[in-house]
Specification:
Elements: H1 22-28, H2 31-37, E1 59-61, H3 90-94, H4 99-116, E2 120-122, H5 145-160, E3 165-171, E4 184-186, H6 189-196, H7 198-207, E5 211-214, E6 218-219, E7 222-223, H8 228-238, E8 244-246, H9 255-261, H10 273-284, H11 289-306, H12 318-332, E9 334-338, E10 352-355, H13 357-360, H14 380-388, E11 394-397, H15 417-423, H16 433-445, E12 448-454, H17 473-485, E13 489-494, H18 502-505, E14 510-513, H19 521-529, E15 543-544, E16 562-564, H20 573-578, E17 583-585, E18 596-606, E19 613-622, E20 628-637, E21 649-658, E22 663-670, E23 677-679, E24 684-686, E25 690-699, E26 702-711, H21 726-731, H22 735-743, H23 751-756, H24 762-766, H25 775-792
Parallel strand pairs: 1-2, 2-3, 3-5, 4-6, 4-16, 5-8, 10-11, 10-12, 12-13, 13-14
Antiparallel strand pairs: 6-7, 9-14, 15-17, 18-19, 19-22, 20-21, 20-25, 23-24, 25-26
The chain binds beta-D-glucopyranose.
Beta-D-glucopyranose binds next to loops.
């Protein structure tokens, strides 16, 4: 297998080729060539067929920056890639709740791809944050599918507006790194449809990504890469996906099964193994040539999609992209608490002690395949010093040591020092008393302390999950020591996934959740701390009081190759809100330097029935003294539903920027899906009529306005079968009357007897003495009424 960029991408040709004539090529390609097209040529290219002028398509990671590897890079060499703008990863971008911003980030990434001759950016990832311990949570958006899907769709339309494709990943139910290449996520269909698939569905149906990347894991026992239900029935037949599906890297097991299931492209190259299996299966008659043609067609269509954007000599504006990265970072940070308005810090006054190695050595992105080689890198310490030069003294102490080696190893995560020693990697997190003593000295002398703590690179990475949610022991010891000598501590967090803040947060006055802020995070942090910008990020994931409160406990990371999604629909705030559990900070929470009042909630229902839509309007007023941006969240609750529903679910949101004293109307339209649930028996979405509550919140726990709605919905008629319960037969709008007619006059089967028998399958009742019809009659009746009700709905 060759590495790197040895294949000449179409961009390097002087004459950008004309679009391929796909039907003609399909007729001219040999079966061997078509099978070869279904696998990568190396790590990053599709197979070119020089004989017919079919060029290779180049792809590269993704998602929050371009990681185009240099030709000399090996498979494990994540560091050797061309410089590219490192935007904040998805964990941070999600906290902006700002589709417009994500679109602009997408456009910038598209331009960087064009400049590098890369046609497909491998991302974004829209997997749900089922557990805070997932090592890859920094690459994912949220615990909520609507938020993740909406933001990812904006990102995708941005990238693709530049003639560059994305690969939406990892499809699907890849919610942990432990055993990720094999584990079976055992999930009931309603949970898949309502929680784990909708973000993909939204992006596919609204942003039309060029490609999708399957996940490594199995779903209910079937590998995603071989899952016909997932890759063809759901993705193409139901959602109308018209692009190409590729495998995650080395996710392919039985290539011929993948082709039949709808997995068009195996990545990276399998050195001919996949091609051989395809050809053998066709020869044996277990795979049809039509399946091969279908995959080859999609590869050729992908080549065609990629050609127009490829031209040599394209560049991008690195300075403008850096400025955009800074803007995104400013919007990403979430102000969790700010007692007594300690923030923003005044530009004059006593010394500020900046403590924590992260102030000088920023942690700004996660580890693994998404790791970008940034064009520039700013740190918060330099930014604060520059901003306060001549006005306020800024002292610094690292407080703890960081192992900055990016080659991560789980044993280095500080949880198992013995394992670390055995593996020959340094264990992070052991307190260094002299570093702590130096920091305490500075803290004592300072008016304010800004303490930068967070997760070291070894604590979270693609490839393994975290062992716990705590900060490392050395940082916790530092925090306690500093807070003991200074009453004005501001904590700035750098972490790619939720950490436990509850044990220490009362000892500090302010907490800024910085997540991983990308290459311009340093200056963005200074902007926020000093009030050049007001924080406006809101949490896209709940911060629980303790890890043990998380709903996946007991069902994570699974055993014997299976992880059972036992909590069903109740992930994230759906769980905490339904169980009325106290949390450290709720989903959607985030403070500002100003305040907002909500009023005048009005809802207008249109088009009642299966196609209902509801327009929600309210007024937001900036009641503080400075400009700010508020994110208005719309939750829907359906307490009277006939099926279990979470306490409330996010169904819409909107952002509004307001000057001090200004006020604006905010509009959000909720479509029928916002009120529907997945009806498992009918295998479709249904809007059950009844009463709903629309709640407008500044977070899931800070509901400001509510209103009740009555929706007519649809009449849901379950199909009947002989084994359906008698009670359901009797309640059926057509069959109920037919059955009563048949039983009319029966003295044995009077109303009382029927009521007593209601929880028996009808077919069993029919075998009882004196029942007037037998199982053949019942089967015929079921077929007749099912056909009748289907045609009338
Ligand atoms: C990751 C993908 C990534 C691919 C290529 C895989 O291991 O799961 O997200 O795009 O490698 O680097």
């Amino acid at each position: 297998m060759s590495e790197g960029n040895e294949i000449t991408p179409a961009s390097d040709r002087l004459d950008v080729p004309r679009l391929l004539d796909v039907p003609r090529l399909l007729a001219e390609l040999t079966l061997d060539e078509k099978a070869a097209l279904l696998g990568g040529a190396d790590r990053w290219h599709t197979e070119p067929i020089e004989r017919l002028g079919i060029p290779a398509v180049m792809m590269a990671d993704g998602p929050h920056g371009l990681r185009k590897q240099s030709p000399e890079a090996t498979v494990l060499d994540l560091l050797v890639s061309y410089p590219a703008t490192c935007f904040p990863p998805a964990v941070a971008l999600a906290s902006t709740w700002d589709g417009d911003l994500l679109h602009r980030v997408g456009v910038a990434l598209g331009d960087e791809c064009r400049a590098e001759g890369v046609s497909i950016l491998l991302g974004p990832g829209v997997n749900m944050k089922r557990t805070p311990l997932c090592g890859r949570n920094f690459e994912y958006f949220s615990e909520d599918p609507l938020l993740a899907g909406s933001l990812a769709a904006a990102f995708v339309t941005g990238v693709q507006s530049r003639g560059i494709g994305v690969s939406l990943k990892h499809f699907a139910a890849n919610n942990q790194e432990t055993d990720r290449r094999h584990v079976s996520a055992d999930v009931d269909e309603r949970t898949l449809r309502e929680i784990y698939l909708p973000a993909f569905e939204r992006v596919v149906t609204t942003a039309r990504p060029w490609t999708l990347m399957c996940s490594y894991n199995r779903i209910n026992g079937v590998y995603s890469a071989e899952n016909h239900w997932l890759l063809t029935e759901v993705l193409r037949d139901e959602w109308g996906f018209d692009g190409l599906v590729m495998s995650d890297w080395d996710a392919m097991n039985l290539r011929e099964r993948g082709v039949a299931a709808g997995l068009d492209l195996e990545m990276p190259s399998s050195d001919g193994v996949g091609t051989r299996r395809i050809l053998d299966a066709v020869a044996a008659g277990t795979l049809s040539e039509a399946d091969v043609d279908r995959g080859a067609t999609r590869v050729l269509e992908l080549v065609n999609r990629s050609l127009p954007a490829l031209a040599p000599g394209q560049t991008f504006d690195a300075a403008a992209h850096h400025a955009l990265a800074r803007e995104a970072a400013v919007e990403s940070a979430v102000l969790l608490k700010n007692d007594g308005a300690l923030l923003p810090l005044a530009r004059s006054g006593g010394p500020i002690a900046v403590i924590g190695e992260f102030a000088r050595t920023p942690r700004y992105q996660g580890a693994g395949s998404s790791r970008v080689n940034p064009t520039r890198l700013e740190d918060a310490l330099t930014a604060l010093r520059e901003a306060l030069a001549g006005a306020r003294e800024v002292t610094f102490a690292p407080g703890f040591a960081l192992v900055t080696d990016v080659v991560t190893h789980p044993a280095a995560a500080g949880v198992d020092a013995a394992a670390a020693t055995a593996a020959g990697v340094p264990a992070t997190g052991t307190p260094d008393s002299s570093l702590i003593a130096d920091a305490v000295e500075l803290a004592r002398a300072a008016e304010v302390v800004v303490l930068f703590v967070g997760l070291p690179p070894s604590y979270e990475s693609e490839g393994y999950d975290r062992a716990h949610m705590n900060l490392p022991p050395d940082q916790l010891e530092l925090l306690a020591a500093v807070a003991a000598v200074n009453a004005n501590v501001v904590v700035v967090l750098s972490n790619g996934a939720a950490v436990t803040v509850h044990p220490w947060q009362d000892s500090v006055r302010a907490v800024l959740e910085g997540w991983l802020l990308g290459q311009a995070g340093g200056r963005a942090t200074a902007d926020l701390l000093l009030g050049a910008a007001s924080p406006s990020g809101k949490l896209a994931e709940t911060l629980p009081l303790a890890y043990e409160h998380n709903p996946s406990i007991g069902n994570f990371p699974g055993e014997d190759g299976v992880v059972r999604y036992g909590e069903g629909l109740l992930i994230g705030y759906r769980w905490y809100d339904t169980h009325r559990l106290d949390v450290a900070y709720p989903f959607g929470h985030g403070l500002s330097y100003t305040t907002f009042a909500y009023s005048d909630l009005v809802t207008r229902v249109h088009d009642d029935g299966a196609r209902t839509s509801v327009e929600v309007t309210c007024r937001v007023t900036n009641t503080g003294t400075r400009a700010g941006r508020e994110i208005v969240q719309v939750y829907v609750s359906n307490p009277g539903s006939s099926v279990f529903r979470p306490e409330q679910e996010l169904k819409g949101f909107a952002a509004v920027s307001l000057d001090a004293g200004a006020s604006a109307e905010v509009h959000v339209t909720l479509d029928a899906r916002a009120f529907s649930h997945w009806h498992t028996a009918a295998s479709r979405w249904t809007l059950e009529g009844g009463s709903f509550e629309v709640r407008i919140g500044a977070s899931s726990r800070d509901i400001r306005l509510t209103t009740a709605l009555q929706l007519a919905g649809e009449v849901i008629v379950d199909p009947l079968a002989p084994g359906t319960l008698l009670g359901v037969w009797l309640a059926h709008p057509v069959a109920g009357d037919r059955l009563r007619e048949i039983l009319q006059g029966s003295t044995v089967y009077d109303d009382y007897r029927l009521w007593r028998l209601r929880e028996n399958p009808l077919v069993r009742v029919s075998r009882m003495r004196g029942f007037p019809i037998d199982e053949h009659d019942i089967a015929a009746l079921a077929a007749e009424v099912n056909a009748q009700t289907e045609s009338s709905t």
